[in-house]
TrEMBL record:
Protein name: SDR family NAD(P)-dependent oxidoreductase
GO cellular component entries: lipid droplet
Keyword Transit peptide: no
Keyword annotations: Oxidoreductase
Record Gene3D superfamilies: NAD(P)-binding Rossmann-like Domain (3.40.50.720)
Pfam families: adh_short
SUPFAM superfamilies tied to this protein: NAD(P)-binding Rossmann-fold domains
Transmembrane segments: none
GO molecular function: oxidoreductase activity, acting on the CH-OH group of donors, NAD or NADP as acceptor
Domain of life the protein comes from: Bacteria
UniProt keyword Hydrolase, yes or no: no
InterPro entries, sorted: NAD(P)-bd_dom_sf, SDR_fam
Length: 69
């Protein structure tokens, strides 16, 4: 598998499902994360799951299907 240590990954839909699991997988591999989702509570849950990993995490609540966002 590719080395993600100290890389930065941007993940949309990170508040649940595949996006959330991808965030956990990449954090386990040392990637810093920029996460977005329309669901603020879901993003907060994802951040909780990532607290045990020594990576930087930023979040943005937005609807990527809205061009004005």
């Amino acid at each position: 598998m590719k080395d993600f240590n100290n890389k930065v990954a941007a993940i949309t839909g990170a508040g649940s499902g595949i996006g959330q699991q991808l965030a956990v997988l990449l954090a386990k591999q040392g990637a810093h994360l920029s996460l977005s989702d329309i669901n603020q509570q879901g993003l907060a849950k994802t951040v909780e799951l990532l607290n045990s990993y020594p990576v930087k995490v930023t979040t943005t609540t937005l609807d990527v299907s809205d061009r004005a966002a």
